[in-house]
UniProtKB/TrEMBL annotation:
InterPro entries given in the database record: B30.2/SPRY, B30.2/SPRY_sf, ConA-like_dom_sf, F-box-like_dom_sf, F-box_dom, FBXO45-Fsn/SPSB_families, SPRY_dom, SPRY_FBXO45
CDD domains: F-box_FBXO45, SPRY_Fbox
Gene Ontology CC terms, in alphabetical order: SCF ubiquitin ligase complex; synapse
Primary localization: other
Every B30.2/SPRY domain range: 61-253
PANTHER family found in the cross-reference section: F-BOX_SPRY DOMAIN-CONTAINING PROTEIN 1, SPRY DOMAIN CONTAINING SOCS BOX PROTEIN
The protein's name in its UniProt record: F-box/SPRY domain-containing protein 1
Taxonomic lineage from the root: Eukaryota, Metazoa, Ecdysozoa, Arthropoda, Crustacea
SMART domains membership: FBOX (SM00256), SPRY (SM00449)
SUPFAM superfamilies given in the database record: Concanavalin A-like lectins/glucanases (SSF49899), F-box domain (SSF81383)
Taxonomic source organism: Cherax quadricarinatus (Australian red claw crayfish)
Origin: domain of life: Eukaryota
Length: 255
């Protein structure tokens, strides 16, 4: 029989085939030839759109929450990095939109959650939005797999040991090893977090630093000397029915 020239298969046919493959297979497909690579690198084509429609809740696709990740492929990537429903306190559930956690009203408990994927190399940015009241302690940052996701009392769980690093939005303190590592950002009378503001968390695994941005203003490096371990986006909360959203953005735009 005649050899089929796979690379010249019409885009329409490719689109249908690609839309049935999982993301891991698509990564391999993009290495087959220049045409496929170019096609799959178009982050807004129908393959990524179909994957988005299949995986993401309609509510998430239509919401303002994903406005920072404009392409279909970026939205899908964010979904694969979102809160892990199997790696959080039993007092927390992930809402149907896939990106927002809800802390149930449980007395005398501090409850945390981690993202589905951790990072050990490269640079990564994600946005965290505290959608409800902060309560007495509301901490955002990173943790290893060894950090606890639940403990009794109302405490700064994230940053309470050597396995986590956090910024308490309530009093603007940095926390690690159970100690305050000083005020952050380092400004006199730094403004307090207002519910609904987007905070950008920037983890640089090559530099071993963690930094934050608020309202697109870089606040400076918060932590240095992070260990060479998988580090996961994390939060801990104490307020009943509060909600926290997290959207993975990819590499920071400045580099």
């Amino acid at each position: 029989g005649k050899m089929v020239n796979w690379c010249s298969l019409q885009d329409r046919v490719l689109e249908v085939i690609f839309s049935y493959l999982d993301v891991y297979d698509l990564r391999n497909c993009s290495l087959v030839c220049k045409n496929w690579y170019k096609y799959l690198n178009d982050e807004n084509n129908d393959v990524w759109r179909l994957h988005c429609v299949r995986k993401l809740a309609e509510e998430a696709l239509k919401s303002d929450l994903l406005s920072s990740v404009p392409t279909y492929k970026a939205k899908l990537r964010a979904f694969y990095h979102a809160w892990n429903p199997n790696d959080c306190s039993r007092n927390i559930y992930v809402k149907p939109n896939g990106f927002t956690l809800h802390r149930n009203p449980v007395a005398q408990s501090t409850d945390g959650a981690r993202g589905k994927l951790g990072f050990r190399s490269g640079r990564h940015a994600w946005e965290v939005v505290w959608e409800g009241p902060l309560g007495t302690v509301a901490v955002i940052g990173i943790a290893t797999r060894d950090a606890a996701v639940q403990c009794p009392g109302y405490v700064a769980l994230l940053g309470s040991d050597e396995h986590s690093w956090g910024w308490n939005l309530v009093d603007n303190h940095l926390l690690h090893n159970g100690d305050s590592q000083g005020n952050y950002p380092q400004l006199n009378n730094a403004p307090k977090y207002q519910v609904g503001e987007r905070i950008r968390v920037i983890l640089d695994c090559d530099d071993n630093t963690l930094a934050f941005e608020k309202n697109y203003e870089f606040l400076g490096v918060a932590f240095r000397g992070l260990p060479d371990k998988q580090l996961y986006p994390s939060v801990s909360a104490v307020y009943g029915n509060t909600e926290v959203s997290m959207v993975y953005l990819g590499p920071p735009l400045d580099g």
